[in-house]
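Annex B, item 7. Sequence and structure tokens for protein A, then protein B.
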Amino acid sequence: MREYGEYLFTSESVSEGHPDKVADRISDTVLDAFLSADPYARVACETLVTTNRIVLAGETRGPATVTAEYLAHLARLAVKDIGYDQAGFSWRNAEVHCHLHAQSEDIAAGVDASAEKDEGAGDQGIMFGYACRETEALMPAPIHYAHLILRRIAELRKNADPLVEGLQPDAKSQVTLRYVDGKPVGATSIVVSTQHDEGVDQELIKANLWTLVESSLPKGWMVPEREFYINPTGKFVIGGPDGDCGLTGRKIIVDTYGGAAPHGGGAFSGKDPTKVDRSAAYVCRYLAKNVVAADLADRCTIQISYAIGVSHPLSVYVDLHNSGQGVDEGKLEKTLRDLVNLSPRGIREHLHLNRPIYVPTSAYGHFGRTPDESKGTFTWENTDLVPALKAAFDR
């Protein structure tokens, strides 16, 4: 984003009931099932969801106890938890087809450790991480509030709160903020499209969501009523996988920084942590967040690149966007590599990624979330590198 002047910036989010997010949830459910049985299982699961049909495909290497029947059962439970029991898509009677097969021996040979080499990256690729001071979570404000609005709607819906009575799982949000000299100062438009029961009054939905959205934003940030768009098409009854096919990995900008920072292109859900598409993106966010939390910069972008089968990163790049407090970016790149082993094995071990911790990541963003030590989730959001970074730069 620009550092000076006045401008608008927009990000969107989608709910856990959006078709693509249903697919992400099921793929991460499959991943967690394998990691529960074997922390070193290999999984690359893609899911397709459409009218009363769920299709699993991809490659795995893990215990035979994780059967197709068991995964079909878990897929149904995931759909149930999201809240789908509709004529066109229901956890009770959707057909589940499992086409998972063994991982390619050629890929396994490149990734597996041996006497001659350390574990290699599961694919080539470039990964980015980002952090900034716009929110307490050190995330860009537009995506932060877009997620928050939908997460609160979902929580109230699952608790049968009258404020969201008649709303169904599928929903999208879009938040446009006004920036002055690089800092957000208020919202200029907000869009929420939410699936609902037939016959629910649109004005009632708008009034109820006005209350929810206004309380989700900082004081004084709420938009004028004319810029508050609720179900702009007039109604949204047919939704979810019955209204639109869903696929794993189609919401990568929703999953990351809402377009406020670069994205390497790889999706996350359904991939075990040997896939650097996922694990290296997590460590990039971890490093960037710690740089900002250590007061070394107001904004930080980090890129790391890998080659399939190669254990070490090919490059580490840091951009402080002219916000560094007298910090040399070249020195910072070296310092970060000294503090964290950025090999695939090093990332997995440092962030404790070989655990069934991925279902919570499948909706409302992989970044800016609160770590839960008891569950081991979102370890990449910890700021435990701050003391070492401050010491390295005499802060």
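Protein B:
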Amino acid sequence: MLSANHLGKRYKSGWAIHPVTVAFEPGMHGLLGPNGAGKSTLLRMLAGLLTPTTGDATLGGESVRRTYRCRQRIGFVPQSFRMHEQLTAREAVCHAVRMRGATALQASADAAASLEAVGLSAEMDQPVRAYSSGMKQRLGIAQAIASDPEVLIVDEPTAGLDPEERFRLRSVLAELSQTKAVLLSTHVLSDIGICEHIHVLSEGRLLFTGGKEQLAAHARGLVWHWETSESEWRRQPSDGVVAARRTAEGLECRALAASQPHPYAIETEPSMEEGYLALIGASARHR
């Protein structure tokens, strides 16, 4: 189990990550938060790539910073990375595995297995320059898992991908989470659908750890639903609207509000997305 124990990072300007204590057991974890929340800083400390100001990250009780062997048990894919685009995918992964001390024979076998795991077997002998953005992201994951780490940390992997590539990448991560602890950082709420465990970070503070239903519960009593005509909507728009869908009769609206935002509004069950918005909003109001 990967654990953060009072793990924090402070710069001259203040806390980038306020000390957090949290554990990541095997399965799919989503680290969700707006841009600038501190997600990348936390991930780099968990991977042993950034020295914390307080506390430590441990894997099976061993500090991720103290031994190379421990860091080898963690695969890390940063938000942006460069590859030698003249190499083929097979050569790129073999090179990464050889850098970790494997023999040429073992590196070749590990590369083939990891490329198959991310769905790139058919393209493994194509040069990286011919790959799409999504294929390059999957290649980065193949490099990270080629040595069969226990933990995979992926920072904003779906940024800039089209819907098809995003779906394919999420499927790859979900499959890997069957045998590993996978920690996916994102600010895109739809990416969290595959996660069993959700962690919400905002302004360097860990606000929430739990499941989707628990996150949705943060908006219970605050979500309203009603239908209205377009002319009425233009004449008197309501505050707090989070969704408006055009129907044959007019508009179907949902709002996040402490009190009834429209005379016809009725209280309804919240979604995970609305729970997230309520949680972030409540945190901002208490700053």
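Comment on protein B: The longest strand covers residues 14-24.
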